[in-house]
Design a protein that fits this description.
CATH class of the largest domain: Alpha Beta
Structural class: alpha+beta
Number of helices: 7
Oligomer: single chain
Mean pLDDT: 81
Strand order of the largest sheet: 6-5-4-3-7
Strand content: 15-25%
CATH topology of the largest domain: Alpha-Beta Plaits
CATH architecture of the largest domain: 2-Layer Sandwich
Radius of gyration: 32 Å
Order of helices and strands: EEHHHHEEEEHEEHEEH
Number of strands: 10
Helix content: 40-55%
Largest sheet: 5 strands, antiparallel
């Protein structure tokens, strides 16, 4: 057990010291988990703290405890890490061996936890995929898409790239529903019907009030847009579908036609047989 494996800073590292190092790290890891349970059960539940803030505080406390555990473990086996020079030396060696991406993702993870451009529970767009933030780790963030697919995104992408967060600040979301109506329809009936559809849906907010826009003249229809506001972005696909179905039913009741694309075809009569065309000189 006392067989020397190698030396660090003129300190002999034996098998027993390695085992003791792992035991100390394990004790601090268990302590971190217990603290997380106490925070969730005893403190956060009473103070009614926002879910995103809870997650940030828990992750920060975990990082602090594990850093303290690492320092204690190194000192326990005789390695003094109180000097910043040694820590910087370890980081520079790691970066030199190709850990630039890991380091940048770790720093970006800290930025996400402190600045909180995203937090657990937010509805975000990752590329062309929509999903909810379920976990922010040291290196990456997990997004759960609407199809229940987990997308693992490196933290550095959230810091250095454009990010769409539908839940940041004010969570209200505007949903635009486009529909075309035939030119023979009564315009006032169309606008009144669309407003009724919005007013009848229980998840559409009264304030801001829904509104209807005439967006222009298409090839075979007036292009109308119904704009409604929702309290939270998570339900917008279902609400969009509900309103589309309600528009179809309402237009059928009111005799409003939703046209399909049409083209007028003019057929000219053929010239009589024997018709001669003048020849050019």
């Amino acid at each position: 057990m006392n067989f020397k494996l190698f030396e660090i800073n003129k300190t002999a590292i034996t098998l027993s010291s390695v085992l003791m190092f792992l035991v100390v790290i394990a004790v601090f890891a268990v302590t971190s988990r217990l603290l997380q349970r106490v925070l969730r059960a005893q403190i956060f539940s009473r103070l009614r703290i926002d879910e995103g803030i809870q997650y940030t505080l828990i992750r920060i406390s975990h990082y602090v405890i594990m850093v303290i555990g690492a320092v204690v473990a190194f000192q326990f086996i005789g390695i003094d890490l109180t000097g910043l020079a040694i820590i910087v030396g370890f980081l520079s060696v790691g970066i030199g061996f190709g850990l630039q991406n890991i380091t940048s993702n770790f720093v970006a993870g800290l930025i996400l936890l402190f600045e909180r451009p995203i937090k657990v529970g937010d509805r975000v767009m990752v590329g062309d995929q929509e999903g909810d933030v379920v976990e922010i780790k040291m290196r990456s963030t997990t997004i759960r898409t609407l199809n229940n697919i987990a997308v693992i995104v490196p933290n550095s992408e959230f810091v250095s790239s454009r990010l769409e967060n539908w839940s940041y600040g004010d969570q209200k979301l505007r949903v635009d529903i486009d529909v075309g109506v035939s030119y023979g329809s009564d315009l006032e009936t169309v606008m009144h019907s669309l407003r009724e559809v919005a007013a009848e849906h229980p998840e559409v907010l009264k304030n801001p009030a829904p509104d209807v826009l005439h967006r222009g003249f298409g090839d075979s229809a007036w292009n109308m847009r119904l704009r409604v506001w929702l309290e939270h972005p998570r339900r917008h696909p279902e609400v969009h579908s509900d309103i589309n179905c309600a528009i179809v039913r309402k237009f059928q009741q009111r005799g409003v036609e939703i046209p399909f694309p049409q083209r007028d075809l003019h057929v000219r009569s053929p010239l009589p047989a024997g018709t001669e065309f003048p020849r050019s000189a």
